Amino acid sequence: MILFDNKIKRIIFVSLISSVFLSFILDPQLFPDSQGYIDYHSLRSFGYPLFINLLQKNLFLVVLVQLFLAHISSVFFILELKKKFKLNNLSSLLIFLILIVISLKISLSILTGSLAFSLYLFSLIFLIKFLDKMDFKNFIISFFFIFLAVCIRSQIIFAMLNLLTISIYLYPQKKRFLFLLIPLISIILVIPKEINRFSNKTFNQINIPIVDQWNQLLVFPIYSSGIQISQFIENKEFKNLFTRIYNCMKEKKITKNIAIKNGQNWTEILDNNYFPAKNCSNTQIDYLYKNYSLEEKEEIGKKLYFKVIYASWKLNKVQILKDYFMKASKSFKNQYYALIFILFTFFLNLQLLIKFNKKLLFLNILCITHLSNVFLISLVAPMLVRYTFYTELILILALISLVINYFHVRKS
Fold it and tell me: Angle 358-380/160-169 helices, nearest 10 degrees?
């Protein structure tokens, strides 16, 4: 069996020794969010606090395990790419060096990034194995790692498109994989959320999956809309709440209109002030609904979000779509590069429909999941590297390897 292969044993042994060595010479890095995971705050998913608590909150062991998983996931990912897609030694080495340096760097952080990224890499490893052998086992293992990653960090839900894209393209050959998607996607969408709800109720006495989600969603539509959408919010209570939140952002000079008036890039102003803007929602809801429970306040935020989106859509549906696109395109530097990438993905799909190719299918999966990841971030969070790197890094490395491989073959 592959698990007992001597080569794999050597990789695991070397990875463990190097991880122990690095754990002794490098200190864990704490960030403002770190304590929320260590103590399991209601703002956080339960998966990472569970991981920390299983290690008795020993940060040395947390970093050690993160380093070890980062090491072996990077090595096995490169080996799988090299074997299945015939990468030459130069491109393999380059990908490995970049991947291992970044993976090991984030492994020192007491944040979800390292563990979620390692699990995502493992899911890609078994996805490549599945593409090679078309066997049900690797398909399910890939799903299992995606599920674990979503439990650690809900953002990784974008990886469902890995399974969906493969199932659609392989439907003529393997119809059962597409039919499997309904229960698998249901599991990813429902189970982690219910685990968070149960954990929050058990440990924090709060009957909601994660606190403050709707206030985060509220930031962008309120920031970008302007006070004029209040005319489309018929309920006086929510109109008043919206006005108070908007005026709070306006006082802090965190609105799209003020940024444009000052000749600033409004998406950058938003990303740099996302959490102060969110604080406006928190403080105004707390002020107006001071006697409400946390669950009831979360419900207020949810209702206001849908009313604001509806009002923005009524005022100018083209503008709100354009604004979301502009925010998402920041991941590509600007909207022109974003359009080029979308066109590239579109023509890649056309090429796959004309002639099926496993390399192109894998590249297509990376492109689609990157677009879905960026879209997801544009809804909820600032467009920061620590959110986009999951798909961005793998895609860049894949494109680099293709270019190196192309010139290597031509030279030969």
Answer: 140
Residue type, 88: N
* 110: DSSP letter: S
- Sequence-separated (6 or more) residues with CB below 8 Å from residue 131: 84, 166, 358, 361, 362
CA-CA distances (angstroms) from residue 221 to 115, 218, 228, 235?
31, 6, 12, 18
**Closest Cα to residue 212, out of 311, 286, 107?**
286
Instruction: Name which of 51, 78, 84, 88 is nearest 66 in CA terms.
Output: 51
Tokens found for residue 244: 């108070």
**Main-chain dihedrals φ then ψ at residue 109, nearest 5 degrees:** -85, 135
Query: Are 229 and 312 contacting, i.e. CB atoms less than 8 angstroms apart?
Result: yes
Query: For the whole prediction, is pTM greater than 0.85?
Result: yes
Q: Which residue has the tokens 């960090």?
A: 153
- Which amino acid appears at position 103 of this protein? S
CA distance 14 to 22: 12
Return the structure tokens found at 279.
């604080």
Query: Please, what's the b/e burial string for 92-127 (b: 16 or more CB within 10 A of its CB; e: otherwise)?
Result: bebbbeebbebbbebbbbbbbbbbbbbbbbbbbbbb
Measured from the Cβ of residue 197, the count of other Cβ atoms closer than 10 Å reads 16
3-state secondary structure 126-180: HHHHHHHHCCHHHHHHHHHHHHHHHHHCHHHHHHHHHHHHHHHHCCCCCHHHHHH
Query: Is the pLDDT assigned to residue 309 strictly greater than 80?
Result: yes
Nearest CA to 178 out of 189, 163, 190 is that of 163
Backbone angles phi, psi at 29, to 5 degrees: -105, 120
Q: Is 32 left (phi over 0), alpha (psi -120 to 50) or beta?
A: alpha
The Cβ-side half-sphere exposure at 213, using a 13 Å CA radius, reads: 16
For 109, the 3-state DSSP assignment is strand
Nearest to 381 by CA among 310, 311, 278: 278
Is pLDDT of 178 > 70? Answer: no
* 177 or 366, which is more confident: 366
d(CA 366, CA 167): 15
Helix axes 358-380, 385-411, angle to 10 degrees: 160
Tokens representing residue 48 in the block: 């990472």
pLDDT tens for each residue of 397-410: 888 877 777 676 65
pLDDT value of residue 412? 55
What's the rounded Cα separation, in Å, for the pair 332 and 338?
5
